[in-house]
Specification:
The chain is elongated. Helix 1 (39-60) runs antiparallel to helix 2 (72-93) and helix 3 (97-132) runs parallel beside helix 5 (190-202). It is an alpha/beta fold and 384 residues long. It has helices spanning 39-60, 72-93, 97-132, 140-143, 190-202, 230-247, 293-305, 336-339, and strands at residues 20-22, 162-171, 175-177, 205-214, 220-224, 253-259, 275-281, 284-287, 289-290, 323-329, 347-351, 366-371, 377-381. The chain crosses the membrane at residues 40-59, 65-84.
Length: 384
């Protein structure tokens, strides 16, 4: 066995700026005051005046207006003026259907433009998340080995200890600001109000993006599944271990594996993170791979006893010099011996034991692993 030196490099990462998109105010329905008198009154006056004028002219046989007939023509003019005033007032207030439909079209066209901007921001956010959490299925993770991105996460990094669990939904980083002026319910225009509400609800999340597990924010994590899905759980743990070892250096993170199926973990012997710092064999550093918990404790009991109770990583808080990730792939085993009830500083256990009495079998740290008929693996958070 030989070793090759590696020097860490700084590599630029995608950056998604903090932005905000303001949703325009929805349309408002106005209720114009009824005309006094209403339009039909002016029409009735005009019709009556016209009939009276024709009857008077016919009975008198006159060829021109004279006497009482002179008052009929002004009445007709007044009624025509009243009808025109009512009609012009209605147009000014836009209370008829064509004007409302035009306002709806303009508002919905504006929402479409906002939606395009939101999609651009969502794609940029998805690209940034995928950069930090590439899929383990197509070999992308392996292409990063030996590049400047290998071991790029140091204890000071914001995403130190983050590993990809799968894909899911996350909140859109770009803020969607709701309309500033919302009319009372009785004056809200229904179409534009519902469209704005649906946009705020549907576009505020990003679908099918990598979802990370903050490995060092808890003392450990437990994964429960049917015995027939053990290989599936092992695949999940394998993907998480590979991500830890690609993005975190062996000087920051150490990995130990406890399993009664060491043949499935034989590949891990090549990881420098699994090498023992103190013991060596004919091939170099001994591998931190153990058949049971007792063998692990025989090697680490004194080291674990010197550690303080667990504290989640926080800015400015106490940090461990080196994190120990323990993969406990052993049905029926108990992680309490490793962690104790309070946990241990700098130790995180990935447990796949099926032990419902484990200290990690809680609503905060447990997941259920299930598989659909099409082979899709689902991770369900345990109830609190």
């Amino acid at each position: 066995m030989s070793t090759t030196g590696f020097i860490r490099q700084e590599v630029g990462a995608p950056f998604v700026p903090e932005e905000a998109i303001q949703i325009d105010d929805t349309a408002e329905i106005t209720r114009p005051a009824p005309a006094k008198p209403p339009t039909w009154v002016w029409i009735l006056i005009f019709v009556v005046a016209a009939v009276v004028l024709m009857v008077s002219l016919y009975l008198s046989g006159a060829r021109q207006l004279s006497g009482a007939s002179l008052f009929i023509f002004p009445m007709m003019m007044v009624s025509m003026f009243g009808m025109m005033r009512n009609r012009m007032g209605s147009n000014g207030k836009k209370d008829h259907g064509s004007a409302i439909n035009q306002d709806r079209a303009v508002y919905l066209r504006g929402l479409d433009e906002k939606r395009r901007d939101i999609h651009v921001a969502a794609r940029a956010q998805a690209t940034e998340i995928s950069y930090h959490h590439p899929t383990p299925l197509d070999g992308t993770l392996g292409t990063l080995v030996g590049t400047g991105r290998m071991w790029e996460r140091t204890p000071d990094a914001r995403n130190f200890g983050h590993v990809r669990m799968g894909v899911g939904i996350t909140r859109l980083q770009t803020k969607l600001l709701p309309p500033l002026k919302v009319p009372p319910p009785e004056f809200r225009e229904t179409v534009t109000t519902v469209a704005a509400r649906d946009l705020l609800i549907a576009q505020n999340v990003v679908h099918d993006v990598p979802r990370p597990l903050h490995l060092f924010d808890q003392r450990g994590w437990s994964f429960f599944a049917e015995p027939s899905l053990r290989e599936t759980v092992q695949g999940l743990l394998r993907a998480m271990v590979c991500q830890v070892c690609v993005f975190h250096g062996p000087d920051d993170v150490q990995v130990a594996i406890i399993s009664d199926d060491l043949e499935s973990w034989d590949w891990a012997k090549w990881l420098p993170h699994v090498g023992d710092d103190e013991f060596v064999d004919a091939c170099g550093p001994a591998r931190l791979m153990f058949p049971d918990v007792a063998a692990f404790m025989e090697r680490f009991e004194s080291s674990l006893a010197s550690r303080r109770p667990f504290q989640a990583r926080q800015e400015g808080g106490e940090r461990a010099d080196r994190w120990l990730v323990v993969v406990l792939d052993l049905p029926g085993a108990d992680a309490t011996v490793i962690l104790t009830e309070e946990g241990r500083m700098g130790v995180s256990v990935l447990e796949a034991t099926g032990n419902e009495d484990s200290v990690l079998a809680t609503g905060d740290t447990a997941f259920f692993v299930a598989a659909d008929e099409d082979g899709t693996v689902n991770l369900l958070k345990a109830a609190g």
